[in-house]
Amino acid sequence: MQKETNNRERGNQPYNNQINTSGDDADYGCCGICLLILSGFIILLTFPVAICMCVKVVQEYERAVIFRLGRLSKGGAKGPGIFFVIPCTDEYRKVDLRTVSFDVPPQEILTKDSVTISVDAVVYYRVQDATMSIANVENADGATRLLAQTTLRNMLGTKSLSEVLTDREEISAGMQATLDIATDPWGIKVERVEIKDVRLPVQLQRAMAAEAEAARDARAKVIAAEGEMNASRKLKEAADVMSESPNSMQLRYLQTLTAISAEKNSTIIFPLPIDMVTSLMTKKKSQNPTKR
């Protein structure tokens, strides 16, 4: 009964798999302390030669994570500049803090509206905490690359084709936030994610091109019809204005003659005033009355 109670209490305790990256509570034990003392004694005996093995240098954009007897050393990552290591007991790894970019391979994705597309992206990230990037994950770069692929597939799988084509900035921002949260325990800061290209099937491209062409033709016909209607209204208004003033019609005739004479034509057409034609027709009817 006591054993079951202990198991229950042990099961209720949260499991913490995070590694202590501060190195403040490092306990090397008696053997470790003896080994450190022996290493220091050897360095003193071989001082002129051992100093070359103890002094290390890291660049401005690098940090050195030191493990002393398998434990993280106090003070966290070292650098930039000169730092010292004990050859027999210390091991260090350099971490580059510069921004790194990598291409996400094209991923075959089934969208929300059952369309298969191929999408690739580019991710920019940097190491924010050198100690966490070494102690909490085996390969920070490889883990970030795999996580970017799965995040791209999962996020685009919830979007329709139209949303993928039009909302690229929103998708990129969502991917960047998701990756940043997931890689925070690894000491990685995702700075930017961009969707590079969206490849559609050939048949779908033809269908979309035909749909766009039909939409453009329909829009052109509507615009042409609206233009004809507006032109007819303006012509009607012009005809009404000219009918109120016979002199304006004569001026229009003269303008037409001027435009025709400006061209090099062998034949010139002289339009007759409508009033003259009407008077001639009236006079002819008066001379030949209709027989009943």
UniProtKB/TrEMBL annotation:
GO CC terms of this entry: plasma membrane
Q: Which UniProt keywords apply?
A: Membrane, Transmembrane, Transmembrane helix
> Where does the sequence pass through the membrane?
28-51
Where does the record say this protein resides?
Membrane
InterPro entries tied to this protein: Band-7_stomatin-like, Band_7, Band_7/SPFH_dom_sf, Band_7/stomatin-like_CS, Stomatin_HflK_fam
Pfam families listed in its UniProt record: Band_7
Name the Gene3D superfamilies for this protein: 6.10.250.2090, Band 7 domain
On whether Transmembrane helix is a keyword of this UniProt record, the answer is yes
Q: Where is the Band domain?
A: 53-212
Tagged with keyword Oxidoreductase:
no
* Protein family: Belongs to the band 7/mec-2 family.
* Entry protein name: Band 7 domain-containing protein
